[in-house]
Design a protein that fits this description.
The chain is of the alpha/beta class and 357 residues long. 33% of the residues lie in helices and 16% in strands.
């Protein structure tokens, strides 16, 4: 009879442990447990929509909630009207108190992903937590020496900071990705864009969320509102810009191809006018990119409905198991929890989604 520690018994025990670990790892991967410290945030008001699209909100909910369910993330759909900012002339500023509420509502969350209402997750198989991994993130940043670009009020900025210590302005071989507290993108037209960004929990985020709604900023007649305020903070304060990583636009915030710019050439009318082919290609969505942002399509007469329908048809279709899972989580009330003494469920704008289309 073999002893309790005989080689056959040891081998059997080792193989059993390997099998159990493999099964656990598979379950962990499929359930998205590795990304459970991420909250996907969407906000709208009672009438939020794009153009005259039917079931617009229901489709957006399906798009975001099924993605969150697939990867084990939390999902928050906040009603903008419940988060007013004193003196703010537009609802753009409400995203800042919503971010504060999300951190309070999900105390175990490390990252918040804000994605505007006029955006779509195009490739739900791409996990956000893998893009945020320290081994991956440095390769996604803009090249060293890239200036911060944007417009604040009447002034256009294109500013380099030679002494910049981290983020896309440092040699990525020496980058400490853990030092980055916020990830944004900037385009070749208007610079820094806050339609899609990621924010890490911590004292830096708490301070920035406090400063971001400073009454002086809110009272300014800035075209891009809270976006201009963030750019101002980045330009004027090293403590802000040194913690902001600017990733390549198509990583988080690609733009759709313009109606009149379908052909290989870039010449002609449209929002790409004056841009080189390399610049244009760096902004425009391509198959496999995580998300597309229809930024400003509401200001282009007649284009929103067509653009949205086109991108909805081009997306990697959500898995039915994730769509059903998201609906079940909504029915169980798992998306709505309390913030302080106020029920977050009263701030949610999801209504009763229907999974048609």
């Amino acid at each position: 009879m073999p002893s309790p520690l005989s080689p056959p018994r040891i081998l059997f025990a080792v193989l059993t442990l390997i099998t159990i670990f493999a099964l656990w790892s598979t379950k962990r991967s499929s359930s998205g447990a590795a990304g459970s410290d991420i909250v996907v945030i969407l906000a709208s008001n009672d009438g939020g929509s794009i153009g005259k699209l039917p079931d617009f909100k229901e489709k957006v909910f399906r798009n975001r909630a099924s993605y969150a369910h697939r990867h084990g993330y939390d999902f928050l759909w906040a009603n903008i009207s419940a988060f007013p900012v004193a003196g703010a002339p537009t609802p753009h500023w409400s995203k800042i108190p919503i971010l504060r509420a999300a951190f309070a509502a999900y105390p175990s969350a490390t990252w918040l992903w804000w994605l505007d209402l006029d955006a779509l997750i195009m490739t739900p198989s791409v996990p956000l937590h893998e893009l945020l991994a320290p081994t991956t993130l440095p390769s996604l940043l803009l090249p060293a020496g890239t200036p911060i670009r944007g417009i604040v009020g009447p002034t256009e900025y294109n500013v380099s900071f030679p002494t910049r210590r981290i983020s896309g302005w440092e040699d990525t071989r020496t980058l400490d990705a853990s030092a980055l507290q916020m990830l944004v993108t900037q385009d070749e037209m208007f610079g820094v864009n806050t339609g899609s960004f990621v924010l890490r929990r911590g004292s830096w985020a708490a301070w920035v969320l406090e400063m971001w709604t400073d009454g002086t900023f809110v009272g300014e007649d800035w075209v891009f509102k809270e976006q201009d305020a963030l750019l101002h903070l980045m330009l004027q304060h090293a403590v802000v810009r040194d913690a902001v990583g600017v990733v390549r636009q198509r990583v988080l915030n690609a733009y759709p191809t313009d109606r009149e710019e379908r052909e290989p050439g870039i010449e002609g009318p449209g929002w790409l006018r004056g841009k080189t082919e390399a610049e244009a290609r760096g902004m425009m969505w391509r198959t496999g990119d995580l998300a597309v942002h229809l930024a400003g399509c509401g200001t282009i007469e007649g284009s929103c409905d067509e653009l949205w329908a086109e991108k909805w048809a081009q997306r990697e279709v959500e898995r039915e198991v994730d769509v059903r899972g998201a609906e079940e989580r909504r029915e169980r009330g798992e998306w709505g929890i309390e913030v302080g003494t106020e029920a977050l469920g009263t701030l949610i704008g999801w209504g009763r989604p229907r999974w048609g289309g």
